[in-house]
């Protein structure tokens, strides 16, 4: 077995959350009288946390206080609608079950708000992750490696024993900053070409490939 710990991004990696993110963003934008965005625009906005999503979604020039108000409304609305259309990608559950059966420790490290990460992880994955953490006050978001290091410490694994799996340039940078190997997926929110440009060396097209690489 090549790795003892597999750390996963959430949005675009293990869960297809895009429709709920787009619907929640647009619902809040409409509430504030702002123009809405199509789903492909929202795809480009996500990956750096909820605040960056809202900063990208509101009109240019919106002041910071208003952004904070919209962000608060978004978090509340999304908290109530985060599982309307969200589903695990095909093959994810089977891949995680295979890793767990082999004794691999698993975790989620996401820039998504922590409350949403914990809720969605429990809802869709039950006991398949040892730890699931998102964006929290006082902890730097990805691509800073802080949360990756925290998980490795809690689960007693070294960088050499750990691998990060994600779907974006932020995830590539996170693995690099943490000094751990990375596996990147082409079914998520960023195209494979961007992943390669960001330095990704291993890009897979099906979850079964993740298990094969980790367990080799």
Core attributes:
single chain, 216 residues, alpha/beta, Rossmann fold, DNA polymerase, domain 1, 2 domains, 6-stranded parallel β-sheet, two-stranded antiparallel sheet, 8 strands, 16% strand, globular
Question: What report would you give on this structure?
Answer:
The protein is α/β, with parallel strands linked by helices. It has two domains: 141 residues, HAD superfamily/HAD-like (Rossmann fold); 64 residues, Putative phosphatase, domain 2 (DNA polymerase, domain 1). Helix 1 packs across helix 4 and helix 5 packs parallel to helix 10. Helix 6 links the parallel strand 4 and strand 5. It starts with a strand and ends with a helix. The strands form two sheets. A six-stranded parallel β-sheet has the order 5-4-1-6-7-8, sandwiched between helices. 48% of the residues lie in helices and 16% in strands. The longest helix is centred in the middle third of the chain and has 18 residues.
Summarize the structure in short.
The chain is of the alpha/beta class and 216 residues long. The chain contains ten helices and eight strands. Strands 5-4-1-6-7-8 form a six-stranded parallel beta sheet, sandwiched between helices. The chain has a two-stranded antiparallel sheet with strand order 2-3.
